Amino acid sequence: MIQYLLNVTAIWLISLVLFDVFLRKESFHSYNRLYLLSTLGLGIAFPMFDWGATYELSRTAIALPVAQIADTRQTVATVFAGATSTSVATQINWWIVAYLAGAGVALTKIAIHLLKLARLYNKGCKLKENGYTIIETGEAHTPFSFLNLVFVGERNAYTTVEWKTVIAHELQHATQLHIIDVCIMQLARVVFWFHPLVYAYNSRLLTVHEYQADRVATTKHTQYGRFLVEQALLNAAPSITHSLNHSPIKKRILMLTKRSTAIAQLKTLIFIPLVLISFLCFSQNSNSKIYKPNEYGTIIFGDNKPEYSSTKFDEIAAGAGVAEWSDHFSKAVATRKTTSVPHMVKMNGKTIQRESYWSNENDWVMPAMYKKLKTELLALEDGYYYLGIKDLIVDENGNICAFTYERILGLKTIPNSSPIEERPFIPVNAMVEQKIFNKICAELAGFPKLAPTVIGNKKVVSVNSLFGDWCAYSLKVQNHKLYCATKEAWVEI
User: Fold this and answer.
1) Do 251 and 26 contact (CB within 8 A), yes or no?
2) What's CA 189's distance to the chain center, in Å?
3) Which segment of 50-64, 290-304, 466-480 scores lowest on mean pLDDT?
4) 436: CB partners within 8 A, 6+ apart
């Protein structure tokens, strides 16, 4: 989230600086309005776009017990009965509380302005004119409009010329559909209430709106300017409306006679490189998105919240502990020890059912993943490999929430019952493994929905050791071809 906000801020800041330097003093107001709305939207959308993210493979985080080295099956000790679970998710997240409080304040301000409009509408005298409903409120405030409603203090306070100017001005707001922009900005101010650049966008956009509406003063600019100054002395209007005294009056008076040259219109071309730079630099590319395994070697997707047992359990291999290997497997010598790790018991507050309940409808997943990883896997040396994807957590809707990564392990010959020290292990190049890990994270993050586990006609959260359930070394690379093990034979992918 922090990286997303940094990218949003960068796009908005660059866009506003370019606007202030090149466009703010020019008179092509329709383009300026489009520029502000577009860059606001691009700043929100581009950082969400993923076109090849990278993922950090932490050697220390994934150095967890690897039972498949010692055997083709892994036995997991059962969690002690009655073990209580602790979860960060169940604790109060004060950041979320603060954000919601700020959003609540922003919504409250909007509600107050709407209530003020409703009060003025209900107490005012109403009459129809030129398709507008005119509401005389009897209060001293500048004329302002909301949708097709025009609020004025008193109709008789204006001369015939001034009244026509007011109506013409507010009609411009209506025909230009400025209310849509106002709604967009109010929504942005609720969602990004903490971001100062949202308020900068709002201020500039309202100014452009007034520039467009001021075009009604095609002649007698001095008289119109004097009228604007008089209205500026009155009370301000609600922020969700358009009023005659919005925006700096001096700039509006100067803009009345401003006409940009044809050469100045070349400045509008800055939008093209801005879009390209924003897309390349601030979308989720190799420099902006990093997936890191947590302390248990688990990669969590999205905002999913895992919960771990307070009681630890041992992962046991060959009855004597678990093999822990050096980074490069250069000596192919195992240091056996028993390692205790917390056990994931819940995902998003729901109990995780163990792999014995895994749906057979998902047998297609492993071959499909191998196919997606084919290019990266063919960079491995010839041999038999265990692709350390285990504990794939799937929620009740079939979405992949998380998985645990346990390194890539390779053997030159098919696994047998020989002692671990005597097996011909293949060192896996760190760069090759990083690319494979990147691809695994990217594919699982956007993987199609799986068939959820059903127990007693109820869909539940489940876990499965995808790539090591019945055959740990289920991948073979030979003569630049990739093979996947089935229960019957090796099948080329």
Assistant:
1) no
2) 18
3) 50-64
4) 373, 376, 377, 387, 408
Which of the residue ranges 158-162, 293-297, 451-455 would you say has the lowest mean pLDDT?
293-297
Cα dihedral 484, 367, 70, 319 sign: negative
How wide is the angle at C-alpha 358 spanned by C-alphas 356 and 363, nearest 5°?
125
Angle at which helix 196-213 crosses helix 178-191, to 10 degrees, equals 170
- The number of CA neighbours under 13 Å toward the Cβ of 122 is 6
Lowest-confidence pick of 110-119, 222-231, 334-343: 334-343
Whether residue 11 contacts residue 248, with contact meaning beta carbons closer than 8 Å, is answered with no
Distance CA 308, CA 311 (A): 9
Contact 410, 467 (CB under 8 A): no
Residue 390 CB neighbours (<10 A): 25
pLDDT digits (tens, 9 = 90+) for 409-468: 888 887 665 555 566 788 888 888 888 888 888 888 888 888 888 888 888 888 876 554
Say which residues have a Cβ less than 8 Å from residue 273's Cβ, sequence separation at least 6.
none
Helix residue ranges, H only, 2-93: 2-18, 29-45
Nearest to 154 by CA among 146, 172, 165, 142: 142
Whether pLDDT at 33 is above 80: yes
> For the chain, what percentages of helix, strand and coil (3-state, to nearest 5) are there?
45, 20, 35
Kindly list the domain boundaries of the chain, sorted by start residue: 2-51+93-282, 294-492
Asked if 133 contacts 148 with a C-beta cutoff of 8 angstroms, the reply is yes
**Taking 90 as the threshold, does the pLDDT of residue 115 lie above it?**
yes
Query: Radius of gyration of the chain from Cα atoms?
Result: 32
Question: How many Cα atoms sit within 13 Å of 125 on the Cβ side?
Answer: 7
Phi and psi (nearest 5°) for 113?
-65, -40
DSSP notation for 91-119: S--HHHHHHHHHHHHHHHHHHHHHHHHHH
More confident site: 82 or 145: 145
Instruction: Quote the CA–CA distance of 1 and 303 in Å, as a whole number.
Output: 10
CB atoms within 10 A of CB 61: 17
The count of other CB atoms within 10 Å of the CB of residue 103 is: 16
Q: How confident is the model at residue 114 (pLDDT cuts 50, 70, 90)?
A: very high
